[in-house]
Amino acid sequence: MPEYPGQTIEPAVRVEHLTRVYGAGRNQVTALAGINVGFDRGTFTAVMGPSGSGKSTLLQTAAGLDRPTSGRVVIGGTDLSGLSETRLTELRRTRIGFVFQAFNLIGALTVEENIVLPLRLAGVRPDRAWLTQVVERVGLTDRLHHRPAALSGGQQQRVAIARALATRPEVIFSDEPTGALDSRTAAQVLTLLRAVVDEHGLTVVMVTHDPIAASYADRVLVLADGAIVADLPQLGAGGIAEHLASLDRRVLR
Ligand SMILES: Nc1ncnc2c1ncn2[C@@H]1O[C@H](COP(=O)(O)OP(=O)(O)OP(=O)(O)O)[C@@H](O)[C@H]1O
C-alpha cells in the first residue's frame, strides 16, 4: 500500500503494523509495538535507540529471520507472511544480504568460496561480471585465495559485504557492522556500504549505536520501547548525538 497519496513506487522493504511479543504472562515482552515504515530503494537507513528498544528485533523480522506476532513485511512486493519456511529461506538467500558484527565467515573456505556461498546454497549460477565488480569494489582482488584467518578484521568484514552483495540483493540488513572494528577500519566499511547504495542503487538498513556510523546514512530512525520515536534526515554525527540526547531527556527517561 502507498504510504501517502500519490506514491506509486513500492519501497524495497515495507513493514506494516509490525508487532513482536516474546514470552507469555508475566514474562511477556513487547519488543515491537506496531511499527509502520518503508525503506525506499537506493537509500541507506540507520536504526538507533537504547538497548532493548527493539532494533535487532526489527531487523530480524524485516529480514524474515524471525516471524512477527502480527503485522507484515513486504520485500520487493512479496509479502513474507504468506511464505512457507522453504520459500522464505529461498527469498532470504536470493533477495536479502546480511552483514553482522561477527563476520560469520567459514574458516575452511577461501575468500572467494565464502563470497559465492550464498549463490551455491541457492543453486544460482554466479554472474561473473557482477562478482568481479563486487570483488574489485571491496578491494579483495588479491585476497581471493586466502582463508579468512589470514585477513584483518576490516578485510573480513569486506568479505562479508561482498558475500552479502553476491546475489545482487534487494536489501542489505546489517546489525552493528562496525561493532568489532577500530574507527579507521570502521570508516572504510561504512564508506563501502555508502558506495554500494550510491553506485549500485542498493538499499541498506543498518542498526548502530554509533552516531558517527549513522552519519553515513540518509535517514536515521530512532526506536524506544518498540516504537519509532524519531525519523530524521541526515544531521551529521554531532546533530544525531544531540538529537539522541534530547530524546533521551524527553522520551527515553
Ligand atoms: N528471544 C527473546 N526472548 C525474549 N525476549 C527477547 C528476545 N529477543 C529480544 N527480547 C526482548 O525484546 C526487547 C527488544 O530486544 P532487541 O534485542 O530487539 O533490542 P535492541 O534495541 O536490539 O537492543 P541492543 O541494543 O541491546 O542490542 C528486549 O526487551 C529484549 O529483552
UniProtKB/TrEMBL annotation:
Instruction: Report the CDD domains cross-referenced here.
Output: ABC_MJ0796_LolCDE_FtsE (cd03255)
Q: Which UniProt keywords apply?
A: ATP-binding, Nucleotide-binding, Transport
Name under which the protein is recorded: ABC transporter
ABC transporter domain residues: 13-250
Pfam families, per the entry:
ABC_tran
Which organism does this sequence originate in? Micromonospora arida
Q: Name one GO molecular function term.
A: ATP binding
User: Which range is the signal sequence, renumbered to this chain?
Assistant: none
Q: SMART domains recorded for this chain?
A: AAA
Q: Report the domain of life of the source organism.
A: Bacteria
**GO CC: one term?**
plasma membrane
| Entry-linked PROSITE patterns | ABC_TRANSPORTER_1 (PS00211), ABC_TRANSPORTER_2 (PS50893)
